[in-house]
Amino acid sequence: MSVSRMIERGVTPLSRSHGILNDYVLKFNKRSSKGDWSFANIEKSEGDTVEGVIFEISESHLEKLDKFEGAPLHYRREKINVISDGKKIECITYIAQDDYIIEGLNPTNDYMGFLIEGSSLLSPDYQKMLKSIITKNPPYKSGGF
Fold first, then answer.
1. Concatenated DSSP letters of 25-55
2. Does the residue 44 lie in any domain?
């Protein structure tokens, strides 16, 4: 969700907006291949809601994101319908591959920092929820899926 993180990865967003994904839940169950910590993931969950940021980017920048997200090995791209400004729009998201899902791990402080840094468009309650996520302290290295 962090603009600075996107730019660091060589991706220049054309626009940024708030998005609501109904019937999904945010989990931190995508295991890292470099340690005992996790990354964000979304899973279908009737009645739940995930808030996030929608970035409009060029096709070539989407390919850059694939590299940083470890797609298609770690995450797969999936098209989903998201509500933004009361309108349903089709977006591309990354969902963890089943082989990389594990429960019981926590994200790193640094990783959560990137999510919280980019959360200004989210509702105050959702920001508060993100800030309450239990983290662990190992150093997070860029592109570390």
1. EEEEEEE-SSSS-EEEEEEEEEEEEEEEEEE
2. yes
* Cis bond before residue 138 (omega within 30° of 0): no
* Per-residue model confidence as pLDDT tens for the chain (145 residues): 999 999 999 999 999 999 999 999 999 999 999 889 999 999 999 999 999 999 999 999 999 999 999 999 999 999 999 999 999 999 999 999 999 999 999 999 999 999 999 999 999 999 999 999 999 875 545 555 5
The DSSP secondary-structure symbol of 76 reads E
* Assigned token pair, 19: 């998005």
Strands ordered across the beta sheet of 87-96: 38-56, 15-31, 75-84, 87-96
In-domain check, residue 143: no
The pair of structure tokens assigned to 112 is: 């959560």
Number of neighbours of residue 59 by Cβ within 10 angstroms: 6
Full residue range of the structural domain in which residue 21 is found: 3-131
What is the number of structural domains in the chain?
Answer: 1
* Angle between helical axes of 109-117 and 124-131 (0-180°, round to 10): 170
Residue 78 belongs to some domain of the structure:
yes
How large is the C-alpha radius of gyration of the chain?
Answer: 14
